[in-house]
Amino acid sequence: xxxxxxxxxxxxxxxxxxxxxxxxxxxxxxxxxxxxxxxxxxxxxxxxxxxxxxxxxxxxxxxxxxxxxxxxxxxxxxxxxxxxxxxxxxxxxxxxxxxxxxxxxxxxxxxxxxxxxxxxxxxxxxxxxxxxxxxxxxxxxxxxxxxxxxxxxxxxxxxxxxxxxxxxxxxxxxxxxxxxxxxxxxxxxxxxxxxxxxxxxxxxxxxxxxxxxxxxxxxxxxxxxxxxxxxxxxxxxxxxxxxxxxxxxxxxxxxxxxxxxxxxxxxxxxxxxxxxxxxxxxxxxxxxxxxxxxxxxxxxxxxxxxxxxxxxxxxxxxxxxxxxxxxxxxxxxxxxxxxxxxxxxxxxxxxxxxxxxxxxxxxxxxxxxxxxxxxxxxxxxxxxxxxxxxxxxxxxxxxxxxxxxxxxxxxxxxxxxxxxxxxxxxxxxxxxxxxxxxxxxxxxxxxxxxxxxxxxxxxxxxxxxxxxxxxxxxxxxxxxxxx
Length: 483
Description:
elongated, 16 strands, alpha+beta, 15% strand, four-stranded antiparallel β-sheet, 17 helices, five-stranded mixed β-sheet
């Protein structure tokens, strides 16, 4: 049998109980479950103790207070506790958890949520309107733009970015096809240049193109957005998640664009829609008298806010591509089929890489620059000499001069034979010289010196000649003094 009883049966239960009937007798007479009778009597008793008129009884005229409910609620016994939690700013979910763990509440979450909504409606809190100084703040938000229908009849959805300076309410609007990071930054930059300056702070929504991790206290911004803010000398401030009133000026601004500039319109291209928005800003939005400031928007901007904006930099933001890359075992990262070296200690680690048409930058996790390379052609390597470990630089890369310096450590004869051999054999003598140096791992320097002296005297510039002399251990013929 269902425990959800009609209002008439609940009223009958309360009246019969007041007449002294037992719970069993009431259940039998009304044809309801005895547990349901007990539950409703318990709720009625709790409401009576809390000062709420029980269901099924009439309250005196004018006796219902704002914090009372006309319907029974399992939360009524905890009203004082719930009101205190609301003053602390706790959500309905948190209140439900604390009631169950700390106050023995065994009802449902939905009962708590309904009870909280009732209390909030009975005691609404007024929001404070915050006005800012000129040049201090700009608010940004996205909305749905007018559709673009091309010559083939294909309909594409657009997004309109609305930018509003909080002091003068001067606005800028631009439509894009996708809410990507590049599209967002491009439109934001166009707004700066349209205003002729940059505000101190930019308040944005927690859109994925800008905020990697939403957090009211310590949000994680997209690295490209941080570089953009640094270039223009401003600060990006995301709003609290799911709190649109923190950027109420631009929230209404988006509605204004949609209702006044774009409603009922269609365009054949994105460029035509943006051109329409630019003319609308100049001829309509800037000419209106704002309801809060009571001043014409365009004139108010020119006179009071534009002089307070941060001056624009000389160049626009150098937009770049960005990605994470692992430094391979050969000490390079791959960018568009070209390869760029990193210091040996970063082999196997993941780095940030930023590249544009001219440069490639490797950055660590704190976005500090490790090395800057010039862009290279596809299939080419850009390798800095200091990025190669000394043990991994082969003799060919070091050059002939390096090998001759090593041969000089064996002795004068080895140097003389090496120079003569290179003059005789040319570039192929480079590898012969490597072979001569390798003999130092098997023979003493004196033995190599003797063999090189004999070979030089006979003009023998083959490495096998040196090896044969070493194996025979032939000594240099001594010139005997005259007796």
